[in-house]
Amino acid sequence: MNDHSNHIDIDVWRFSLDWTREDIESQLDHLTSEEKKFIHRGIAPVIGERSALSRLGLRKILSTYLDIEPQKIPLSIGEHGKPFLDNGALKFNLSHCRDRAILVASTDTELGVDLEKIREESPIEDLASRCFSEKEQKLWKAVPEQQRRISFFHLWVQKEALVKAHGNGMTIPLRKFEGVPDPQVLTGTIRSELPEIGSGNWTFQAFEESQQMRSAVMYRARYAKIIQKDVEPVGLSRW
What we know:
27% strand, 4-stranded antiparallel β-sheet, single chain, alpha+beta, CATH 3.90.470.20
């Protein structure tokens, strides 16, 4: 078991969800019969297409680790919707936003990832008052106003990534653990008095994916080697 002090390896896979419907349908045999129905989800065709393609990407990538045909990988779904492998040897997490997806995988630690677009319409003042701790709110409000929206999403992806890494969904109150609002700080530790989280047990690595997108990977160790993986050899498209 990892003692949370040694360095660990985390693979990061970024893949595009911008495929034609014809291309997606040609790959549906890599999904289970239930997952093939994903393509019909949502009020707009693109929603179902991206849902199916994100699961297709997950299975194709996991296949490279497990040496199992994508559609035969035994995925289970946790109580709060987090997919996992029954044997638990490989940990992974997936996030997608618009036409982009990011998957992280490691044999060393539980981990989570979140990808968000910096949305101008989001009511960040209201969300911050409800979801940030008092300390986080104070630090966030000290950020120059022109950087405050970026700062909000920088902190938000940290919180979402930890919730996803922990696997208990939104049962963990977001105000009860603290990340780093400063968008210039790309790595740091999460502080919390919650026994299920602990203080200093979780580390984040944040990424400026583009001017309008931020992401964060959360892992349970002091240091991680982040390895950027190429998705094209597994039949996916890069961003």
